[in-house]
Design brief:
heterodimer; A: 98 residues; mainly alpha; 72% helix; B: 119 residues; 77% helix
């Protein structure tokens, strides 16, 4: 019963965040909402595991937590530099003079 | 056992309260920096309280270690991604708004004001 109550609360917050993802005036609002949505996804997976009596779901929750942070940093880097890899906008490093 | 149940109820309900407040705050607050503040509520208190409530329900097993691992991962990645997001917002030229709804000029020299008022 207590897991169901917590799950309903997390689902409600996820709905609020989805509205913010669609409304968000800037791209940073959307990234923020998606990041928070990922954290709540992890919470809901853990709660669902306990609700169904199978706490092995927690492995998947750890995976989601790791993917979420990497995805946020990657999307931020993409919007900041316009590219994910290499040295597109970075000035070249000076060669050491010996 | 009944004490554990009551403690678990309290922790899960207060965690759910913080999660709901965070969701409403992200929807309702006026600009991206204040929304960041609301979203940080989930990353710290909401997640910690709900994970603690689940730990009390799990008993002494490997599940408690996994829940603690999730807590540690979120403890480090949440502030990191929030910092990166705020840094990207400032670099992207988004200005924080003040209480009267206007934008704050970030190049405004605060130290100059302080010395001119003589405090």
């Amino acid at each position: 019963m207590m897991f169901a109550v917590a799950s309903v609360a997390v689902f409600f917050a996820m709905g609020m965040l989805l509205i913010r993802v669609f409304l968000g005036p800037t791209v940073y609002d959307r990234i923020l909402a998606v990041n928070s949505f990922g954290t709540k996804t992890m919470l809901i997976i853990a709660l669902m595991g306990f609700l169904n009596g199978r706490p092995e779901f927690l492995d998947i929750a750890i995976l989601y937590a790791l993917i979420n942070s990497v995805a946020t940093i990657a999307v931020l880097k993409f919007f900041r530099f316009g590219s994910l890899g290499g040295s597109v906008n970075v000035p070249p490093i000076d060669e050491p003079t010996s | 056992m009944i004490v554990l149940e009551i403690m678990s109820w309290i922790l899960l309900l207060s965690g759910s309260f913080f999660v709901v407040v965070s969701g409403v705050g992200v929807l309702r607050l006026p600009d991206v920096y204040s929304r960041m503040h609301a979203a940080g509520l989930t990353d710290t208190l909401g997640t910690a309280l709900i994970l603690a409530g689940l730990m009390l329900q799990a008993g002494i097993s490997l599940v408690v270690i996994k829940l603690g691992l999730i807590g540690i991962v979120l403890f480090f990645t949440g502030p990191t991604s929030t910092y990166a997001l705020a840094n990207a917002c400032l670099g992207g030229g988004i200005k924080p708004i003040s209480t009267d709804g206007t934008s704050i000029d970030l190049n405004h020299d605060v130290a100059e004001d302080r010395s001119s008022t003589g405090s």
